[in-house]
Amino acid sequence: MFSIYAVPLQTLRRLRPVMVVAAILGLSGNLSQAQTQSPQSDWPVPGKSIRVIVPFPAGSGSDMLARMLGQKVGEQTGSPVIIENKPGAGTMIGAQAVSRAEPDGYTLLYTIVVTHTQNPHLYKKLPYDPFKDFTPILQLVRSATVLIANKNAPFNTTAELISYARANPGKLNFASYSPGSTSHLNGEILKMQANIDITHIPYKGTSEASRALLAGDVQLYFDGTATAVESGRNGQVKVLGPATDRRLSVLPDLPTLDEQGIKGLNIVGWQGLFAPGNMDPVLADRVSAVFRNALLSPEIQQTVASQGNEISGAGPKEYAEIVKNDYQRWGEVIKHIGLTLD
Predict the structure, then answer these.
(1) Which tens digits make up the pLDDT trace of 147-158?
(2) Can you give the pTM of this predicted structure?
(3) Could you read off the pLDDT of 69-118 as tens digits, one per residue?
(4) Is the link from the previous residue into 44 a cis peptide, with omega within 30 of 0?
(5) Of 148, 146, 159, 139, residue with least CA distance to 250
(6) Strand 220-224 versus strand 173-176 pairing type
(7) 203: left (phi over 0), alpha (psi -120 to 50) or beta
């Protein structure tokens, strides 16, 4: 066995500088390792608040789900999640606030597809860069719009709608809940792909658009899944088909519009979580994992299903690809119709 007492004094003196350097390098390595691990292991610090900005009014569908998610994260981590509503300007006010924050995981944006994939093409002067100023964290929910018709409309299927519209150009109106919204753009895709002439009538919000359809002021509307299915079951509207990439679990026997021959109407909406730009990838994965764990709680899964939506859970890398692809797709549609909102 090696013993320090067996080492000659001169040899020991020669070893001292080497041992000191080794000790310093070892300490430096440990510090470096601790610094590398800290974003993943320390977030969130128990008791430190996480601020989630929602660019919609309190009580909206997105706001309600964000609050449920925040409560679950708080329960699981010990860090309170504060939901801050910053509505207005088509989600741009809330998005801008997050884009200017530190990428430390304590300021996040809960928003929908419009912020990063539609607004950049609709507004010439956007107060944020959809890619440089944000780090995609987690795609939370996939949602679909469903094409519905007034119950007294002179057609019962998508094929009959197209035939009627071609025989009566300009006589059918379709509603949207605002210019440039998904409900509007889906209507424009329908016009292009089916080669029909129908007139866009914008309203202020989903409630006004729905009332207009029920009253017969308009004949068509791309509505959210939950309300479309409920209205259809109550006999208030005719449900023609979902504008999504696969059949809906709540409407398993109804072919998608793509299956019915309307190509291009296989676009999925979503709700998702973003952080400010340039976030440490390790920290981004950690934040994503924490919120995904909350998202998969039975209560939230049940709520999402009751709204006719689907849990996603796509993490930072996959979510970034989804945002990029949707940005390109919506850009092509918006450029084709020449729509701008400023």
Answers:
(1) 999 999 999 999
(2) 0.81
(3) 999 999 999 999 999 999 989 899 999 999 999 999 999 999 999 999 99
(4) yes
(5) 146
(6) parallel
(7) beta
